[in-house]
Design a protein that fits this description.
By secondary structure, the chain is an alpha+beta fold. It has two domains: about 55 residues; about 210 residues, Galactose-binding domain-like (Jelly Rolls, Sandwich), CATH 2.60.120.260. Helix content is about 15%, strand content about 35%. Strands 3, 4, 7, 8, 11, 12 and 14 form a seven-stranded antiparallel β-sheet that branches. Strands 2, 5, 6, 10, 13 and 15 form a six-stranded antiparallel β-sheet that branches. A hairpin with a 2-residue loop joins strand 16 and strand 17. It is elongated and about 95 Å long. The structure holds calcium ion (4 copies).
Length: about 280
């Protein structure tokens, strides 16, 4: 009896191993961040040398606050970012020199929630959109949390000023974290302190995730600061293996423990049966 059991247990353990290892859908197990600490913050203003009547990517200018950075995410550092100007007002845009880009200025914010630098958008005379480096989430399941801290300077805003922070999935689906379009920022009670905006994103069938933020405004007293961007995995909520869907709160370790426990029970059961029949 005992000898007959060994091949059965061996086959069971092989089956379990083959079921788990190769076909687990991989949860997003890496956290990403952007705190604007890696790029330089030389101070002063950024001046766009492009044509403010047309939409265009903004270029970094030597000695001015950077508006783009390649980042070092591939070696475990910060995500990169890039900025573009959108002509929404037929105005001068950033050609008149504006406090835009990476900054260590604390006159408005007091301090930064993470490190000593952040990113400022101000007096865009049109819209500036900053796009954080996209993350490849193909094959990832579970829920990612995207969060960002923002500080809206306390001043007199108008209805045509617009702050937006949003996540773009697969270059198509847009999920807002904050969008003041249609409201007057003055009425939202968000001025003069740091706020954390965040959204949970179900990564099932999402191959690309990208955070963007923008400001459309037209006054030097209107400024928004950004910092402490984090994209983290909360809990895998769907584990797929061997054509079986195990959802809800089970994680990989729990399932492995259950399978091992089941094997042990089987073994003990067969062993006891062998003892009682002899
Ligand atoms: Ca920072
Ligand atoms: Ca301007
Ligand atoms: Ca106000
Ligand atoms: Ca305004």
């Amino acid at each position: 009896m005992w000898k007959k059991l060994i091949p059965f247990l061996l086959a069971l353990s092989l089956l379990i191993n083959f079921s788990i290892s190769p076909s687990f859908a991989k949860p997003l197990d890496t956290d990403f961040s952007l705190s604007f600490e890696e790029a330089s913050a030389p101070g002063g203003q950024y001046t766009d040398t492009g044509d403010p009547s047309t939409d265009h990517p903004l270029k970094n200018n030597p000695g001015e606050p950077p508006v783009n950075d390649p980042g070092t995410a591939s070696s475990g550092g910060e995500l990169g970012f890039s900025s573009e100007y959108i002509n929404t007002r037929n105005d001068v845009g950033l050609t008149d020199g504006d406090y835009v880009g990476v900054t260590s200025y604390t006159g408005d914010v007091g301090s930064y929630p993470d490190g000593s630098q952040g990113f400022e958008l101000s007096d865009c005379d049109g819209k500036v959109v900053t796009s954080v480096q996209a993350i490849d989430t193909s094959g990832a399941t579970g829920t990612a949390t995207v969060s960002i801290d923002y500080f809206v300077k306390s001043t007199g805003w108008e209805t045509d000023d617009e702050l937006r922070i949003w996540v773009v999935l697969d270059d198509t689906t847009e999920v807002d974290i904050i969008n003041t379009a249609g409201s007057d920022i003055d009425d939202l009670g968000i001025e003069g302190s740091w706020h954390t905006g965040s959204v949970d994103i179900d990564l099932t069938n999402v191959n690309k995730l990208q955070l963007k933020f923008s400001l459309d405004s037209n006054s030097g007293s209107e400024a928004v600061y950004f910092d402490n961007i984090q994209i983290t995995n909360v809990t895998p909520n769907a584990i797929t293996f061997a054509g079986m869907n195990a959802s809800h709160d089970l994680n990989n370790n729990v399932i492995i423990a259950l399978l091992v426990g089941f094997s042990v029970l089987l073994f003990v059961g067969f062993w006891l049966r062998r003892r009682t029949t002899h």
